[in-house]
Amino acid sequence: MATENHVGRFAPSPTGPLHFGSIVAATASYLFAKSQDGKWLLRIEDVDEGRTESGAISSIIETIAALGMEWDGEIVFQSRRKHLYRDALQAIHDFTYPCSCSRRDVTGIYSGKCRKGAAGEARSIRVRVEDEVLSFQDMIRGEQSQNLAKEAGDFVLFRADGYFSYQFAVVVDDHEQGVNQVVRGADLLDSTPRQIHLQRLLGYDTPIYAHLPLALNSQGEKLSKQNLAEPVDAGTEVLFDALEFLGQAPPIELREGSIQEFWKWAIQNWKIENIPKEDRYCR
Ligand code: GLU
């Protein structure tokens, strides 16, 4: 029985149709929440409006619905939540500063040059980070540590092109939506300390984190739109393959069965301890 409200989410960026790696993240976050009788939210991360691909939003929503994943509440769109990001930015005003450096001026980790005042016209807003190690416990990968000053530097919350950054929007949204379990690909493992830093400045609780193995193509690259990962066919087969990828051992008959049977088995037999830590090739 649920002793507290578990709230998870799937938060795809609408830069293209869902590929196998996205289905792995959707499946794992769904099972994590549903096996604990929790809620599962769907949030379209279109904060970077220039990268939204026409048709991707409807294609993502249709695929999730066709795969039988039932989201709770309304679908949320980051592009419609700028007022929340603006208020949160105001709330941590004392920890941020305007920066006039252009992308070309900044190679590697930002030096903090504009901390004492922007030299020219401000282009973006950055948050100060500390020279100390920030650690957290990942449910799959164990203890993770990062020195934000040495490995990330003061990072951008509001971008020169007028959009809020992913790092900032995701923290505000997860808090605002009551998300307390973040299950996503390990490509975001090294963003997590930045997000925890923001949660602390904003006075938010830190959710539980579980970073999933990445699905690699035959060249050993993470599946992405850039390397032309194929859109998935929304049927039981892809769910089955995702579940197997996640180290679960579904009986083979499930692959040919109905989506309802699939979820029934998957929710009852979900074992987070069986999820592998290493990135893996997908079939
Ligand atoms: N929007 C991000 C992506 O599609 C995921 C963000 C997250 O889960 O925190 O890669």
Descriptive notes:
It is a single chain. The chain is of the alpha/beta class and 283 residues long. It has a domain of 150 residues: 3-Layer(aba) Sandwich (Rossmann fold), CATH 3.40.50. Helix content is 29%, strand content 18%. It has 8 helices and 12 strands. Strands 1-2-3 form a 3-stranded parallel beta sheet, covered by helices on one side. The protein has a 3-stranded antiparallel beta sheet with strand order 4-5-8. Strands 6-7 form a two-stranded antiparallel ribbon. It starts with 6 loop residues before the first strand and ends with a strand. Bound molecules: glutamic acid. The site of glutamic acid (GLU) has 7 residues, from loops.
Structural class: alpha/beta
Q: Globular, elongated, flat, extended or rod-shaped: what is the shape?
A: globular
Mean pLDDT: 95
Share of helix, binned: 25-40%
Bound molecules: glutamic acid
What's the gyration radius in Å? Answer: 19 Å
Assigned CATH class of the domain at 7-82 and 208-281: Alpha Beta
Count of alpha and pi helical runs: 8
Q: What amount of the residues lies in strands?
A: 15-25%
Beginning-to-end CA distance, first to last residue: 36 Å
Q: Flag low-confidence runs.
A: none
Helix and strand run: EHEHEHEEEEHEHEHEEHHE
> CATH homologous superfamily of the domain at 7-82 and 208-281 - what is it?
HUPs
* Number of DSSP E strands: 12
